[in-house]
User: Fold this.
Amino acid sequence: MSMIHVWGAMVLLFVLIMTPAISFLWSGWHVRRRDITDGFSDAAIQSYFQTFHPKVPLEQDLQKQFNAYYNDQFGRSRFVLPLLLLAGLVGLLLCWSAMSIPDLLQSQKVSDGEFPALAMVAVMGAYMWVLFDEITKWYSSDLSPGDIYWWCFRFTIAVPMGYAMKDVFTEGLAMPIAFFLGAFPTSQLMSIARRIATKKLGYADSENREISELQSMQGIDIQKAEQFSAEGITTILQLAYFDPIRLTIRTGFSYSYVVDCTCQALLWIYTEKDTVTMRKSGLRSSYEVLFLWLNLEDSANKAQSEQVILETAQALHFPEASLKNILEEVALDPYTIFLFLSWSGATKADFNEGQLKLLDLDK
Assistant:
């Protein structure tokens, strides 16, 4: 194998791992941005700033102000540093490998300063995982700067992790294990390392294996709970009051999914497992609770809404007055109002005078 072939292969590998991220910034980022910002009415933007950034003065053109805020907080400029780090790290590892391959193929040995076979295999294992994760996120248009930093971390620990496995497994298994570690997500890889370390050191594994309480809600499985956990959200209360736009960007979930989970959390912190019974009355989350409460201000729907409240109280074996108090607290929570306005796309023109007063939009 000539040096031209070796270097040509490394250049192609470098281009391959950089292309999805660059493609995302070229087109996917706009899709991601539209998914969040285009459905926001002026009422939703006003509610967002009042709820999450109350000290920010509102401008006359709310759409322009919100777009400027989004670009400042989550714009493409935030990808520059992590992409440069990734390019430098991958370029260094691939160049190092390219310089070492000829000696390795000819004499099965490498000179001082060159990459041993185990190190190259470990790097390619990390390459396998990073490229897989990158293509997945590029395809779904949910790439974030944090993802790229994690990829840099994965390449950084690849070689030390490979050599650590060499002393844990037999010499014949060290090479394939170093590569196949690339099949594990980074969080699982760290869990494996932690378990091996605690076993070797003679300590009990202190890792908390309890199921996250987030899984009590609909639509959150182990994988989703782990992604929320990566953002520091391990309780339903935290989820209920976290900025949903920031959470959407950080987790890569769709905005609709984040809103749905947050709305469930806002109701759950008051009713907990009684939420399951309330679903039979159509009160699945704070979104439906606010919709019900708005109907109490509508003469055409008031009687039906009051009947729903009565039947729900009976189903829960709960005093009607107490249930009304809970529903009012949930419905008029500023976070509920913002989520309702941003998800429904409703404007001030869609509400009567009493409803506008409830939503604090009568200004």
In short: Confidence is low (pLDDT under 50) at residues 206-210.
